[in-house]
Specification:
Layout (H helix, E strand, L loop, with lengths): L4 H17 L2 E8 L10 E6 L12 E3 L5 E7 L2 E7 L14 E2 L12 E3 L4 E8 L6 E10 L9 E6 L6 E7 L5 E7 L4 E10 L8 E8 L12 E6 L4 H9 L12 E6 L1
Parallel strand pairs: 1-8, 9-15
Antiparallel strand pairs: 1-4, 2-3, 2-5, 5-6, 5-7, 9-12, 10-11, 10-13, 13-14, 15-16
């Protein structure tokens, strides 16, 4: 049986209308703890049961200058609404993972059941107080106490251990370093020292040593962290923990990762 063009056009229109109706709307306003709009901040809809953030623009919204957000093409399904899901606090979003309407626990979050034409509008998503940020300082030294200049620093957030900030900070000539951290979060600092085997950017590096601090929070960190490079056999563990597949294999001399608090 042949389908005339006019009937084909009608069928396409019907299917298109059904597809539109099958998409839901989630919209509202994102507020700070003081009730003021929180602008230019990402929030996300996460399918129930998902343990990782779904990288789909239909499920991610950015608040406007007045805190308004809207996700207008949400596929059918059940979702929770959150901020910093599967992520750690950042300068732009200094919050623990938090769920709508007012909880840190996903099990207590409201479930948005998106089906044909369902709309959730005028939501007010008020966040808890932003996390306080403070400074952590320290020094990297060799076993004999001499300072280690030019060592790279990594800061590991234990609650979100995939979030490794490696190479952003380096020690100065005296082996000193400083970086910032959020209060209440558990961290571990590490230092790595490399030497280039050659003079060009394509030459490989030699791994010279690593050091690691005890676990600390901003409130319990020593006034000056002291990281000591010592010989050991656990380089592979350190490399996987902090560097993973970011850097190529090295011609290495194994060193220990240890620390002493001043």
């Amino acid at each position: 049986m042949k389908i005339r063009p006019i009937f084909l056009l009608i069928l396409v229109s019907l299917f298109s209308a059904a597809a539109v109706n099958a998409q839901g709307l989630v919209a509202g306003q994102l507020l700070k703890s003081n009730g003021k709009p929180l602008q230019y901040t990402e929030i996300e809809l996460v399918p129930l049961g998902a343990k990782r953030l779904i990288n789909d623009p239909k499920l991610i919204g950015i608040s406007s200058s007045n805190g308004r957000f809207s996700m207008s093409a949400v596929p059918r399904g059940k979702y929770t609404l959150s901020i910093n899901f599967d992520d750690k606090p950042t300068d732009l979003s200094p919050y623990e993972t938090f769920y709508y309407p007012d909880t840190y626990k996903r099990s207590e979050a409201e479930v948005f059941d998106i089906s044909d034409g369902i709309k959730y509008q005028k939501l007010i998503f008020k966040l808890p107080p932003a996390l306080v940020k403070g400074k952590i300082a320290g020094r990297v030294v060799y076993a004999d106490g001499k300072p280690v200049g030019g060592a790279f620093l990594a800061l590991r957030d234990l609650k979100f251990d995939r979030g490794i900030s490696f190479g952003q900070y380096k020690t100065d000539k005296l082996g000193d370093f400083s970086f910032t951290a959020f209060a209440g979060r558990r961290y571990q600092a590490a230092a790595f020292l490399f030497a280039r085997l050659g003079t060009t950017a394509l030459d490989p590096y030699e791994f010279l040593g690593a050091a690691e601090s005890d676990v600390f929070t901003l409130e319990t960190a020593p006034a000056n962290l002291r990281l000591v490079l010592r010989e050991s056999q656990n380089y592979e563990q350190m490399r996987e923990k902090y560097i993973g597949g970011l850097l190529p294999e090295f011609s290495i001399e194994i060193f220990d990762s240890s620390s002493k608090g001043e």
